[in-house]
Specification:
The complex is a heterodimer. Chain A is α+β, with helices and mostly antiparallel strands. Chain A has 3 helices and 9 strands; from the N terminus they run βββαβββββαβα. Chain A has helices at about 30-35, 90, 115-125; strands spanning about 10, 15-20, 20-25, 40, 50, 55-60, 65-70, 75-80, 100-105. Chain A has a 6-stranded antiparallel β-sheet. Chain A has a 3-stranded antiparallel β-sheet with strand order 4-6-7. Chain B starts with 16 loop residues before the first helix and ends in a 10-residue tail after the last strand. Chain B is globular and about 65 Å long. Classes of the chains: A alpha+beta, B alpha+beta.
């Protein structure tokens, strides 16, 4: 399982990459593996306000519906529209298949998230 | 992620349980059974589904139960307790049927096999094993017939797909081309004599189910031999995830979803297998009344028009948001590449082409009523 060190991680298995004032969000390798074949991704509209720790969208595998939780608060600046037709990209490349970009309200929020080492431990504990 | 899932001590296991875990299957609790939902290392749900539609897939379905009826009044007992007309069966022939409550609702759906005039064999669902065995014991006591729950005696392996015939033929000297759909025979498979080989399944595809002793070593040996024999056809092990999407595309009922103790035969659209012209069976008087009166809901097939996947239990609502029905099963259809569902709706909304709303996370998402089965295998 792969957890890039430049990313921050939530306990709900999202990753956050800080690029200036923007946060890029997706789900982790652990999450895509646990979900299995992903067949549907539902994302918010550009301009929507999202709040750290609150749901911002949905990802569905063949069997299950899972909520996506925001790793940080802010305004949705972009969504990865490609995932509407090719949700399997999330399985194939979980760190390339970003879901949303957030104009961050407070960059300090990212400090509360896990490092890749901590997340790797957290993922391993759950088997 | 650990590569080998641990055995869960509280769940029931088939003889192949250690084999599934060795193969890296993702294991789940399915009605109290510790079963493989998919095998990520070799397939995953979508690949497993497509293997069955285009090649061949192998399933452990040993969690299914079995009840054996023997004795001079075996047929009378079977006729009393199930809705199809078993007197039409000849030895080596099987048919789909159901056991009903007096209300005309479902105890379980079953496959009835006629082995001999005094010997019938039901295959029943995993989650309803004890209930079914209890129901049979309660209701066939008056017949000169022994009904035994032999559910734990067999490992049941399903070999499903257009290449199933060619695969299994490599492992048996029984001429499989002589076994028609829903017929069976006893032959030698992988060296095991007197193995029941039935041309049945729950995938909508051609295929076979074999019944071998529930011994872990024998079961593991046969499982691996079947997979090895199928290697040239791309055979892969398939879990309950693919089993569910395959049966849904083919509109085969799942107990607790399309059928239950609260749903009757006419609502479920299974009256084709219910022979009301028989003199007597449990549920018949209620069904005659229901047939005369009509039903207040019908099972329909839905295809999503707008983006979204209808899931089990989601409400069907009218344009004002009032609930008029509900989804019994819904999923992406991996072969058809559509989002499909089965749902109960009032007869007025059940016409082909009717547009309905599925409520998905508070939003109305449009779907239309389509002909079923969604998928029908090509005729040879």
């Amino acid at each position: 399982m792969n957890y890039p060190s430049e990313l921050k991680y939530t306990k709900d298995d999202e990753w956050l990459k800080i690029e200036g004032d923007t946060g890029v969000v997706g789900i982790t390798d652990y999450a895509q593996n646990a979900l299995g074949d992903i067949v549907f991704v539902e994302l918010p509209k550009v301009g929507a306000e999202i709040t750290a720790g609150k749901p911002f969208g949905t990802v569905e595998s063949v069997k299950a519906v899972s909520e996506l939780f925001a790793p940080a608060s802010g305004t949705v600046a972009a969504i990865n529209e490609e995932l509407a037709n090719t949700p399997e990209k999330v399985n194939q490349d979980p760190y390339g298949a970003w879901m949303i970009k957030i104009k961050l309200k407070d960059k300090g929020e990212a400090g509360k998230l896990m490092s890749s080492a901590d997340y790797e431990k957290y993922a391993a504990e759950r088997g | 992620m650990s590569t080998v899932a641990e055995a869960n001590p509280t769940l029931r296991k088939t003889a192949l349980n250690p084999v599934h875990r060795q193969m890296g299957a993702k294991m789940v609790d399915f009605g109290g059974w510790h079963m493989p939902v998919e095998y990520p290392a070799t397939g995953g749900v979508l690949a497993e589904h497509l293997a069955v539609r285009t090649g061949v897939g192998i399933f452990d379905v040993s969690h299914m139960g079995d009840i054996r009826f023997t004795g001079p009044q075996a047929l009378d007992a079977v006729q009393h307790i199930s809705m199809n007309d078993a007197s039409r069966l000849v030895p080596d022939q099987a048919h789909y049927s159901a056991m009903l409550y007096p209300e005309g609702t479902f105890v379980d759906d079953i496959i009835v096999h006629k082995i001999a005039d005094d010997h019938y064999y039901f295959v029943i669902n995993a989650g309803t094993r004890e209930k079914d065995a209890g129901w049979v014991a309660e209701n066939v006591g008056g017949f000169r017939c022994k009904a035994e729950n032999v559910s734990d005696d067999f490992t049941q392996i399903a070999i499903q797909g257009p290449q199933a015939h060619t695969l299994l033929q490599k492992l048996t000297d029984t001429d499989l081309s002589l076994i028609k759909n829903y017929w069976f025979t006893f032959g030698t498979v992988c060296g095991l004599k007197n193995t029941m080989i039935a041309r049945t399944g729950y995938t909508g595809e051609d295929g076979f189910e074999i019944y071998i002793p529930a011994d872990p070593q024998i079961s593991a040996r046969v499982w691996h031999e079947v997979l090895e024999a199928g290697r040239e056809f791309g055979a892969i092990p398939c879990g309950l995830g693919a089993r569910n999407t395959l049966r849904l595309e083919s509109k085969m009922a799942l107990y607790g979803h399309e059928i239950s103790e609260k749903i009757n035969v006419f609502e479920a659209g299974l009256d084709r297998w219910c022979k009301l012209e028989q003199p007597e069976f449990i549920g018949k008087p209620a069904l005659e009344r229901i047939k005369a009166q009509g039903t207040t809901r019908r099972l329909v097939g839905l295809e999503m028009i707008e983006r979204g996947i209808a899931r089990d239990g989601y409400p069907i609502v009218d344009d004002t948001g009032r609930q008029i029905g509900y989804v019994t099963s819904g999923s992406v259809a991996p072969f058809l590449k559509k989002n499909i569902a089965l749902a109960y709706v009032p007869p007025g909304q059940a016409e082909i082409g009717s547009v309905l709303n599925v409520e998905i996370r508070g939003q109305k998402v449009k779907a239309k009523v389509v002909p079923t089965p969604f998928y029908k295998r090509p005729k040879k």
